[in-house]
């Protein structure tokens, strides 16, 4: 295999799929990024068996092939290379030669045939919204998840679509965040729980342009995000989510209306007198 990339395109592709590289695993192949150019386009794939990402990277294919390369080493090399064209060439023993100007790196790879590819998802139900909208929905709710809690539901967020309105809910036993978004076009009714880790990682690679759209597909066990030239597949959290309507009451003794900017400024100034150790909530 022999491929040529611009540094910007290669860095972008590596950064996207690296979000699905596990921090710890007993399977060394999962620590790799799969590079596949056998079908006339260059695909980068990473998969930790719970979250998988595949993206198409722009580049020139001089010789087709595929190889799995250690993600950390590959990422570090690409980051340090000069801002010029980068060539990746492999041999029959899965050794990769990475060159750019006067820099050369020889690293050992693994057979692409051993890699765990993404599952094929039946696109049973779907919704469509802008990447910016999903990014905002996640950023405004994800802080209420409890990733280390024994209750798996608190580690995820509820995605519920009713009558073309998407409701996203997160709670950690002490706080609850709810965001709603009216959807345009086709929007199938659905109710699933998406892992917070998946949403946190995908929010980092979504566009901030309100005109960049994306599709989200749902099956019984998986959710599929499709945008630009990237797909993200994640397992769903099984089980029944909390009955939110029973937790919220409309019978409040006190209700206030405040200017958001002024309130945030007041809170920011007041927290100057709080010790750093006290700012971290203890939910044990």
TrEMBL record:
<dbReference type="GO" id="GO:0003677">
    <property type="term" value="F:DNA binding"/>
</dbReference>
<keyword id="KW-0235">DNA replication</keyword>
<dbReference type="Pfam" id="PF00712">
    <property type="entry name" value="DNA_pol3_beta"/>
</dbReference>
<dbReference type="GO" id="GO:0006271">
    <property type="term" value="P:DNA strand elongation involved in DNA replication"/>
</dbReference>
<dbReference type="GO" id="GO:0003887">
    <property type="term" value="F:DNA-directed DNA polymerase activity"/>
</dbReference>
<dbReference type="GO" id="GO:0009360">
    <property type="term" value="C:DNA polymerase III complex"/>
</dbReference>
<keyword id="KW-0808">Transferase</keyword>
<dbReference type="InterPro" id="IPR001001">
    <property type="entry name" value="DNA_polIII_beta"/>
</dbReference>
<dbReference type="InterPro" id="IPR022637">
    <property type="entry name" value="DNA_polIII_beta_cen"/>
</dbReference>
<protein>
    <recommendedName>
        <fullName>DNA polymerase III subunit beta</fullName>
    </recommendedName>
</protein>
<keyword id="KW-0548">Nucleotidyltransferase</keyword>
<comment type="similarity">
    <text>Belongs to the beta sliding clamp family.</text>
</comment>
<keyword id="KW-0238">DNA-binding</keyword>
<dbReference type="GO" id="GO:0008408">
    <property type="term" value="F:3'-5' exonuclease activity"/>
</dbReference>
<dbReference type="InterPro" id="IPR046938">
    <property type="entry name" value="DNA_clamp_sf"/>
</dbReference>
<feature type="domain" description="DNA polymerase III beta sliding clamp central">
    <location>
        <begin position="129"/>
        <end position="241"/>
    </location>
</feature>
<feature type="domain" description="DNA polymerase III beta sliding clamp N-terminal">
    <location>
        <begin position="1"/>
        <end position="118"/>
    </location>
</feature>
<dbReference type="Pfam" id="PF02767">
    <property type="entry name" value="DNA_pol3_beta_2"/>
</dbReference>
<keyword id="KW-0239">DNA-directed DNA polymerase</keyword>
<keyword id="KW-0963">Cytoplasm</keyword>
<dbReference type="GO" id="GO:0005737">
    <property type="term" value="C:cytoplasm"/>
</dbReference>
<dbReference type="InterPro" id="IPR022634">
    <property type="entry name" value="DNA_polIII_beta_N"/>
</dbReference>
